[in-house]
């Protein structure tokens, strides 16, 4: 089932070419199917937020889009090419992926972590170079971590640590970023801090960004496009005001809610009432 079948919303927002697409995507762990026959498109130059209840396949879909998981059936295309038929280094020069809850070795400093983002650009005949130094310094500057470059990751706050991981992805030099729950375990102030950084990277660098988020109102505020999922399928895809409706919230989350205008942005703001009696 596609978004257009459910809501009448065009699954490809106008304004740019498709960078990533999934067609008939089926994803499974052993015999357990998580995503079944999913279609989705990610348009160039947009921020897309993927929402849905726990266990609906959000992170699994993102793993497949990032070439971290091979589909049981269907196809993922990156810039019109089968992502699994594209050499790994070519993908890494275009696509950066930040998984959920990444782990770094003990004792690693911020600069050490960010430098790891340069590995795809290196070859056996060209190791560390001036370009690598510049890319790392630029990524640290963009994320406000230049003064903490020599600080061990273990000494950072949660928000600073998340910025360090994003900095590593930026050092990779890609213009397409997949971020799996980048605000997990952060308090509200640090959630907003990280998402403001993501929006700044989008606006200033023209990056195409896909994020999995749990907070519906943060998704509404930061996304150009929202993909809503349930039970491994896309229920709706479109602008936040078109997707975040009482009917969709009831169908996707089993949630009764009213949707009002956000007093800051004018976009949709979800006010929960309680669990749907039909869920």
UniProtKB/TrEMBL annotation:
Location comes to: Cell membrane
Grouped into one coarse class, the protein's main location is membrane
Q: Which Pfam families match?
A: ABC_tran
Instruction: Note the InterPro entries from the entry.
Output: AAA+_ATPase (IPR003593), ABC_transporter-like_ATP-bd (IPR003439), ABC_transporter-like_CS (IPR017871), P-loop_NTPase (IPR027417), Siderophore_ABC-ATPase (IPR051535)
Q: Give the top-rank taxon of the lineage listed in the UniProt record for this protein.
A: Bacteria
Recorded topology in the membrane: Peripheral membrane protein
Identify a single GO molecular function assigned to this protein: ATP binding
**Protein's name according to its UniProt entry:** ABC transporter ATP-binding protein
Species: Nocardiopsis lambiniae
